Amino acid sequence: MSRSQTYERIQLYKAEIILQKYTNSFEERVLLLECFAGYIGGISVTEYWKVFKIDSKGYHIDDSILYDLKQEILKTDISIAMAISSLIREPINIEEQKKQGAFYTDYRLAEIIAKDFYDEIKVESKVVDFAAGTGILLVGIAQKYKEKYKESFDEWIQKGLYAYDLSEYALRGATVAIMSMTSNLSAIRKMVSKWKVCDSLLDEEVDRNNYDIVVGNPPWGKLKLSRHSFARREGTERIYGSDYNCFNYEKYEEKKNGLAEYRRDIKEKYNLIMNTEPDMYMAFLEKAISLANPKSGKISFLVPAGLIRSKGTKAIRKYLLNNSIKLKIRLFDNKAKFFAIDSRFKFLMISIYSGIQSQLKNVVFSIGSIEKSGISFGDDIIFNTRKLKKIRPDLTIPEVKTVQERDIFYKVIDNGIKWGKTEDIWKADISREVDMTNDRKKFVKNLCAEAIPVVEGRMVQQYRFGVKSYISGSGRSAVWTPCAKNGKAQFYVTKDKLNKEQLKRITKKRVGYCDIAGQTNERAMMSTIIPAGVICGNKVPTIIFPNAPEDILYLWIGITNSFVFDWMIRRVISTTINYFLLFNIPMPKLDIQSKEAKTIINNVKIISSMGEEYYNDSFMQNIRAEIDILVAQAYGLTFEEIKIILNDFPIMDRKQPAINREKKSTITRDSVLSMAEQKWNSNSTIYTDRYRQAKKIGAHAYIPTEMTILSKVYEGGE
């Protein structure tokens, strides 16, 4: 049985070995863990099987094995009940998890949620999980309840503990986990009598109760079915960029239509989803809100970070800000191996308190981190709701670590101007020109008459166009090499395959940016001039400013490639810079005819025209630093605030030589702060001195790590 290596799975590795050694099927695994739960809690498993009409087929396991299993679990920092909940989960591979958005809850997160609600748990509390799985979140609450009210625990689980799930096996697992906490089989039977295997989103019976505490880690997947996901589900292998083999289109359409009908039912019932393509977690969260006790309900959910930064979740954000008395949001990434997904993936633990008091005054935000002692949280950042509604009309919450970062974010917004959907010079005509998947059949591999190169995201960097040249291979297996400019494209499309709008657009110079990004990347925002005569793939959206002269293109590039703009976009993105997020970062109040704007424009023109000298010329470094400082000043930032912003780019200059036996080079940071010392007429020359030292040993500022191969390292200085 293959299981993903989350931190939880690593902790339980030796327990897993025992289970694999003494079981030959998932059913036997469940039977063994039922024996184990009875062994721990003091319930006769034979009686348990009889009460719940489970055919054990004469299954038996020696107590010595159960003892060994107990000892291995006790060596971990996981409680026995939570360990059972984890070990009894149905096996599911990583691809299936991603498809369904079903990521099993890590015990550490369950413990945090339970600890948060410790003071809120009352003797009569009604607790529910609508997507309970094997009940680890309910176990966490139950453990805290037992700490407070041990004598009434059995009575409480009969009356106050509710679970719903689509899987009968999952609820059976949740039952076993709770069973390990009591010797009262009658209480277990009465508890389970309230539980139900059902689709809790649509089941009317579920709607009949109000609950004091609602917990959940609902599915995170979208209600849609792609050809790719269907093919993988059916076991069809496909090489990236090739056609599907033996694809069952009839069955695919049947499944797709069935899902579409279900999606309509969900959208009809859950109003906060509105016209967006619904994520499952959105519906579950709305359900939790509707069924939590309106006077004193508490909700704690694990959901993707899109809740605080996506356009489609605005209605839910608005509802929470207008209908909660307390709202606490904690942001995590997956570096601690909570889930079997990319370590960069970010998710939230959101705690919602309902009540009839005055409207919510503040949102409390913090970022979780992993220390040797376990999970810790950074500063509680307070966002005043009135201020938030004013400065962020979309109600998105920026990812800031400190009060200082929050204030910088506010300042840039306050000192900026809206753009994109305006009627001034910043009105933007933005487009994804061709789709690399849907238009794939139109592409050809070789340059021929009337063929137009297709620009991919990897070919775009800050101020640089065509910086990767195609060599061989296809799709994700393609081989590319860095180049100064004018790199060879992998694909071409002939003009006869383009429509009128596309043909018209490729005659114009425009700006483009790589929309694949991340907060931990060397640089997140990367924009450049896109010349006429090429067409951009969907990962390189292009922009034309119809109400402005051509110089606006160069001004926009200078602003968006600046550290300030990059820092701002990092506060709100996950992995993609979509239009919604891009337009919500303002432009500085710069008159295009001002001295500062003209300097930026001229500098950008020079940089954009450079070839190989870009990677070796000190002049480039100086004028880029000047652009960065001019943009920062236009946003009204101070020297100290620039220093804070630059702290967010720790992986720059990884292949540059470091000065004074330092661990790493900071040549780019030093070049910017050196320019700041000049522009602010600072009495200090600390950073100017550092910049000069770095240059003497051959360090180059602003060179992407992957492009250092194009730089000449000077021995003994310039």
List the helices and strands and how they pair.
Blueprint: H1 7-11, H2 13-22, H3 26-41, H4 45-51, H5 63-74, H6 80-87, H7 94-100, H8 107-116, E1 127-129, H9 136-148, H10 153-160, E2 161-165, H11 168-179, H12 185-194, E3 196-197, E4 213-216, H13 227-233, H14 249-269, H15 280-291, E5 298-304, H16 314-323, E6 326-333, E7 346-353, E8 362-371, E9 374-377, E10 381-384, H17 385-391, H18 403-414, E11 416-417, E12 429-431, E13 443-444, E14 451-455, E15 460-461, E16 464-465, E17 468-472, E18 479-482, E19 492-494, H19 500-505, E20 510-513, E21 527-530, E22 535-536, E23 542-544, H20 551-560, H21 563-570, H22 579-583, E24 587-588, H23 595-609, H24 618-634, H25 639-646, H26 667-679, H27 686-696
Parallel strand pairs: 1-2, 1-4, 2-3, 4-5, 6-8, 14-22
Antiparallel strand pairs: 5-7, 6-7, 8-9, 8-10, 11-24, 12-23, 13-19, 14-19, 15-16, 17-18, 20-21, 20-23
Strand content: 5-15%
Globally, the shape reads: elongated
Number of strands: 24
Text of the CATH class of the largest domain: Alpha Beta
- According to CATH, the homologous superfamily of the largest domain is Vaccinia Virus protein VP39
Helical proportion?
A: 25-40%
Annotation field: number of helices: 27
Stretches where pLDDT falls below 50 for ≥5 residues?
A: 225-244, 714-718
Largest sheet: 10 strands, mixed
Say what the CATH topology of the largest domain is: Rossmann fold
Mean pLDDT reading = 89
Measure the end-to-end span: 60 Å
CATH architecture of the largest domain: 3-Layer(aba) Sandwich
The radius of gyration is 29 Å
Structural class assignment: alpha/beta
How many discrete structural domains? 3
